[in-house]
């Protein structure tokens, strides 16, 4: 079979060469090819077939596909059937008994459209955090590539039908247009707008925190310390919640209010666990109780630390 295809391919090249030489020797008009089909191109959905009529030719047809992993072809009389076997582009070559040749371009595809989930992605991110988000390709021909027109601030990558969008440093607000191209060459573009915030956690992150039940538990500066002894809760004008380990290591949160769900102003933090030391109380940029079920409270906070770097954390405490 490979020898047959090789010989037919050679005949195609020889035919093209003879036409070229004839054109050089005779400056007259070039006639239309003898073999004519009902369409000069074929677009076929993967695993489906397309039938074309041979409108003119000399009979005795043979046919082959240059890549049968993409499409196969058969002829019955003057009817050409193309079966799409995989995504891509190939050609089908038809030859009649007088060695006239017709090359038919074939496009094998899944979808005629490339559709991305939404034409805009807006998100807020905690300043200093890269803010990684994903966008789905809802329709298209797999083998996607993605390009950001602002690679200095927003970078993109793809895996399967998932597009990952992330900030390069997460220090400033940024915008970009992301262009997605599928294996068929179809393109789609969506806009990205990222706005920085000092608020510690977005809604989905808060949901994850509220689903946790270990207490006492604190996460701060990347450290998770569930093993310290809980400080006594001291409700009143100034509430105190925190963790303590023999007075050597501690995290103490001071805040006003009645411990109901909501954001409070005037909250402070003090902490010491090597090598981190607040050097006394620091004002919190944000402090919010996100859940109170009567047995425990869940708190989130952010602040500029002793080195004036923005930090965030959360705390779960028994009442």
Number of helices: 2
**Helix-strand string:** HEEEEEEEEEEEEEEEEHEEEEEEEEEEEE
Unreliable stretches (pLDDT < 50, length at least 5) are: 1-32
Secondary-structure-derived class: mainly beta
Domains counted in the coordinates: how many? 3
Helix content: 10-25%
Strand order in space, largest sheet: 18-17-28-27-26-22
Q: How far from one another are the termini?
A: 80 Å
Please state the average pLDDT score: 83
Give the strand tally. Answer: 28
Radius of gyration: 34 Å
Assign an overall shape: rod-shaped
Please give a handful of descriptors for the protein shown.
319 residues; mainly beta; Immunoglobulin-like; 3 domains; 6-stranded antiparallel β-sheet; 28 strands
Characterize this entry briefly:
The protein is mainly beta. It is 10% helix and 49% strand. The protein has helices spanning 2-25, 203-210; strands at residues 36-37, 42-45, 49-56, 62-65, 71-76, 79-84, 88-95, 101-109, 115-116, 120-126, 133-139, 145-148, 154-159, 162-167, 174-181, 187-197, 217-220, 223-224, 229-230, 239-245, 249-255, 262-263, 268-273, 276-277, 282-283, 286-292, 296-304, 310-318.
